[in-house]
Amino acid sequence: MTAFTDANPGQTFTLTGSVEEGFDTLHGVPTTTLGENADHLMALGHLTDRAVLAVTNAYHRRVWGQRILPCSQLADLTRLGTKRIGIKVTKESDDYAWHFDYADRDDPTAQAATIIDIEWLCHEDIAVQSECPTCNRSSRSTNHTTGPGRTGWGHYHHCRYCDHKWPTAPARLPNLTKHRRRELPRPDGCFACFCVPEYSCTARCTIQYNPLIGQRLCATCRNQLPDDVWRQLAAVAYGTATTFDDLDDQRDRWLYSEALRGIPPTQATQTWQHRLTLTALRADLPPQSTSV
Ligand SMILES: [Zn+2]
Ligand SMILES: [Zn+2]
Ligand SMILES: [Zn+2]
Question: How far is ligand 3, taken at its centre, from the CA of residue 84, in Å?
């Protein structure tokens, strides 16, 4: 076996699964990701079906903090999403770079590898425990999805007992949310939802500057809550986050989803603070890291 570092550019060599080659050891198997979007895993050797599932699970847990959910793509992973192939690996000019080509089936010098297509697997984030505000049962996972009020996607818990959705109280360390950029709402659109003049959220929805909150708000959003609640939301600084801060966004989502089920915004600001503190405790963070 040729050591990776001894290979010259253009020379074929055998991957050893070392860190320098970009491999991680998952479930005892040297594995790396392929493609710019890391939508495939490549493990060295021909894996058993069991090992394919174990490696895929370990990758999502370790690298992304995610749990794979049962879905048809998972059911088909070992049958349709896995290829056991032979590869020829070539060193590139850069010290750590290499590429591979598929080898002929009967090539005795080929190296065995397993390619796993992970692009369409469904997963949820592993999160700090949080209690459902309506039924008090706990959840330890979130999905990155849209919720009532506010433009853009956020991390939400979903109660599997009562179906309620509530936003995650972010924990600062370890970072449980992957860094994603929030989409800017259009200046002529509703600041809270995706409603814009030529593509309104409901037929004939209208968008107007709303002095109650100092933002443009569409009729649908405005009609979801009584004026008095909008006034209270404005009073607790709903929707005034100036930085693209996960914490502020999630707070707004919490205030809005609580308002929708009749919880006064002043009370919701207190329960949010309590949730931040509790999340910090559960994540074992120093308390100051949750200060707003
Ligand atoms: Zn519930
Ligand atoms: Zn709206
Ligand atoms: Zn609208």
Answer: 50
Residue whose pair of structure tokens reads 């070392």 in the numeric block: 18
- pTM, whole model, 2 decimals? 0.66
Find the 191 Cα to ligand 1 centroid distance in Å: 28
Distance 134 CA to ligand 1 centre (A): 5
Give the distance (Å) from ligand 2 centre to CA of residue 274. Answer: 28
Q: Looking at this protein, which amino acid is placed at residue 282?
A: R
Task: Work out the average pLDDT over 236-250.
Answer: 72
Cα–Cα distance between 183 and 204 in angstroms, integer? 24
Residues 6+ apart with CB under 8 A from 235: 265, 266
Bridge partners of residue 38, in order along the sequence: none
Q: What is the pLDDT of residues 9-28, one digit of tens each?
A: 778 889 999 988 889 999 99
Cα(102)–Cα(173) distance, integer angstroms: 42
Sequence spans of domains, the chain: 4-117, 123-290
Residue 13 near residue 89 (C-beta atoms within 8 A): yes
